[in-house]
Amino acid sequence: MPLVNGGKIVDDSFVKLAVDTPLPEGGDILVPAERFLGDAEAFLARAGKVGVIWPNNRDIDELVPYLGRLAAVALVFPTFRDGRAYSQARLLRERFNYRGEVRATGQVLRDQFVFMLRAGFDAFDVKKQADAEAFMQTAKRYSVFYQPTGDGRITALHRRMQLRHSEGVGT
Amino acid sequence: MYAYDEIDRTLVNERVSEFRDQVKRRLSGELTEDEFKLLRLQNGVYLQLHAYMFRVAIPYGTLASNQLRALAHVARKYDRGYGHFTTRQNIQFNWIKLAELPDALADLAEVGIHAMQTSGNNMRNVTSDQWAGVAPGEIEDPRIWSELIRQHTTLHPEFSFLPRKFKIAITASDHDRAAIKIHDIGLRLIKNEKGETGFEVLVGGGLGRTPFIAKTIKHFVHGRDILSYIEAILRVYNQYGRRDNIYKARIKILVHELGIEKFSREVEEEWQHIRNSSLQIDDEVIEDIRSRFTYPAYEKLPHMPDELRQAAADPDFEAWRRNSVAPHKIQGYSIVTISLKPTGKPPGDATAEQMDALADLADKYSFGEIRVGHEQNLALPHVAKRDLPALWKALDKLGLATPNVNLITDIIACPGLDYCSLANARSIPIAQELTRRFANHELANLIGRLHINISGCINACGHHHVGHIGILGVEKNGEEVYQITIGGRADESAALGNLIGPGVKFDEVADVVEDIVEAYLALRERPEELFIDTVKRLGVEPFKERVYATR
Fold first, then answer.
1. The Nitrite/sulphite reductase 4Fe-4S domain covers which part of the protein (chain B) (predicted)?
2. Which residue, A84, B253, B376, B543, is the most exposed by fewest CB within 10 angstroms?
3. Looking at the structure, do residues B26 and B62 belong to the same domain, yes or no?
4. Which of A75, A91, A160 is the best residue to mutate to test the B interface, defined by the most B CB atoms within 10 Å of its own CB?
5. Which residue among A130, A147, A155 places its CB closest to the CB of B30?
């Protein structure tokens, strides 16, 4: 499954641990939520980056005490129809000011890239190679956005206000 | 009318080119049907019994004449020459070809029409009062706010994959023509004691297999906070709405399971986090949207012009006028409802020729504007009273002057088993038979206001729960059986109807309705007591006794 980060296909430095995989000595790891919460300090004390795989039916508030020390939070799309992780991503970025990697995992498809970018995701475990290759092109599909989110893109309402004011200058 | 600017046009065009690419990938096999299904639903495309069905949004029910012509063009070029107006200010085309859909969307985009989010588990077309901006006594034009919310809900990055569909309706009149109490969010525009605009917010209404009337979650949300408040409701719903069972996934179930108090506390808590964010709306933003709605330059006209006085001698004109013409906020003008319920025809259908001709009449008599209501009728919102006789003659020639608005043959019905893959029973043939039974205008007038709603399955697209008489078709042992309720209503006093007795067979439905009507005529205290009031006064029992005595 190709990983897209910073708009490009890149090697994934993280190893995903299952609930019972032995803990590797070093290197970057993504740990399932339950396992992480069971022994958070031990994971965080280890050399190498630590990220958490957070299920979409668990309150993201529980992760808040650790956010400052987490390199990544992987949010899950069990199917692309299940949109709970969009809310979690926005809360991470906009309420808890999380600046690490927010990764989309699960059934991550091309036609959701724009929504995910807007919600604050910046890394994508893309299901299909062709979709990963089409990332940059797909991400540019839209130039107009109606809602303000934490991604900083200017909204249609604000662009109209800017146009209004700049038009007003000459008259 | 709301005029799209370059920004709105760009978004719609970007959406069309995205969908063109998605259709191409589907046709090449790159996308599976499972992956494509949701993408097409988000663009209003269903797969029905015989073909793809294409649902186009008519936000808050306002259409310009050139937009109606574009709908006629789509009906003619890509479909079979007609369209079907629905109960949520949409129009459906039933015979569209997948490969041609992107072109149909592109043609509609040219006049600022789209099909975004007319199906799928997202925020649907925002609906409002079809008389918005012209109804006497209206607090203010609710379409300004409808448009603001339309924009905010379009391609929302957080709420495009909700547990289930989500519908918002807005009214600004005491009499609710937008059926806000059967919506996921209902907004009633009001003023506070300082004269500031805001909304009473209702939540959790909906029909389907578990019908609920919406409950008030907050008595006053200031206009500047309405987007953040809606966002808070949706964030709670997106995270906690049930996703394990499609029949329990609507917000009404979450509200019911949590209770309105706990649900509103959750929303309040979320809202406090986001209300002072960029979601807060400046007056300037509202004014900008308001400035792109244009209003007609009305003339100063007499209340009772000579033309109208003379035409009153014609009983056919009078019959039509009494049922189809409503008061306008400006003296000398009227709102004219166009019945799409002719005897023996499917409710809500209009041919391409009718749409084109109506667009011409709108240009001539209604400042180029047409409205679409949830009752599946159209309206011309600004007709000078002096023009009413001429308009009536023109409508009559087009088969659009059936004098039955709000009468027993003004039936709301879903497409039913004739088109829909979800249906268990036929709806349209029942409606057609009823319009024949009550075709006598004298009789229909004698009965007075009476709404019949028909759904061909439990999903309730025909809103049978809130029909004065509701008819629900189900399947029992391979046969169509119809359950009949009375006493439902969709207005400001919204209520769910009560079952009158055991289900009946297809060919008995019209007889039962006739018996119910006969019972009403015998039971009413005086001719002015409407059917719905008699049911309210007496309950179901006396009706049941009379209707089932001989069955």
1. 119-273, 408-547
2. B253
3. yes
4. A160
5. A130
For the stretch B502-518, pLDDT in tens is 999 999 999 999 999 99
- Residues B324-372: tens digit of each pLDDT: 999 999 999 999 999 999 998 999 999 999 999 999 999 999 999 999 9
Contact B157 A149 (CB under 8 A): yes
Q: Do B39 and A111 touch (CB under 8 A)?
A: yes
Mention every residue, 6+ apart, whose C-beta is less than 8 A from residue B138.
B129, B131, B132, B172, B173, B329
Q: In A, which residues are within 8 Å of B279 by CB distance?
A: 148
Which of B368, B397, B426 is at the close of a domain?
A: B397
Contacts of B304 (CB under 8 A, 6+ apart): B385
Smallest Cβ–Cβ distance between A144 and the set B11, B17, B159 belongs to B11
A143 and B10 in contact by Cβ < 8 A? Answer: yes
Residue type, B215: K
Q: Are residues B316 and B280 in the same domain?
A: no
pLDDT 10s digits, B125-182: 999 999 999 999 999 999 999 999 999 999 999 999 999 999 999 999 999 999 999 9
Examine the domain organization and report whether B60 and B199 are in the same domain.
no
State residue B49's pLDDT score.
81
Residues B436 and B431: their CA atoms lie apart, in Å, by: 9
Contact yes or no for B213/B252 (Cβ under 8 A)? no
Give me the pLDDT at residue A169, please: 52
**Residues B251 and B310 reside in one and the same domain:** no
Residues on A contacting B at a C-beta cutoff of 8 Å: 80-84, 86-88, 90, 95, 109, 111, 114-116, 118-119, 130, 141-149, 155-157, 159-161, 164
- Of B67, B66, B74, B114, the closest CA to residue B95 belongs to B74
Does B62 fall in a domain?
yes
What's the domain range around B383? 306-397
Evaluate whether residue B473 is within a structural domain.
yes
Q: Is residue B269 part of a domain?
A: yes
Cα B83–chain centre separation: 15
Residue of chain B nearest A55, judged by CA positions: B239
Contact list, B11 vs chain A (CB under 8 Å): 142, 144, 146, 156
Distances (CA, A) of B149 to A132, B42, B143, B169, B228: 33, 18, 9, 10, 11
What is the ipTM for the molecules in this complex? 0.96
Does one domain contain both B182 and B262?
yes
Do B149 and B279 belong to one domain? Answer: yes
Domain count, chain B: 4
Are residues B69 and B152 located together in one domain of the fold?
no
CATH architecture of A3-140: Alpha-Beta Barrel (3.20)
Domain boundary assignment for chain A: 3-140, 143-171
The SS3 assignment for B457 reads coil
The C-alpha of B229 sits at a distance from chain A's nearest C-alpha, in angstroms, of: 14
Does the residue B180 lie in any domain? yes
Chain A residue numbers with beta carbons less than 8 Å from the beta carbon of B38 are 80-81
Last residue of a domain, one of B90, B109, B128: B109
Q: Is the dihedral of CA B3, B7, B10, B16 positive or negative?
A: negative
How far lies B487's CA from each of A111, B497, B508, B549, in Å? 46, 5, 20, 20
**What is the DSSP secondary structure assignment for residue B123, as one 8-state letter?**
B
For range B248-259, the mean pLDDT: 97
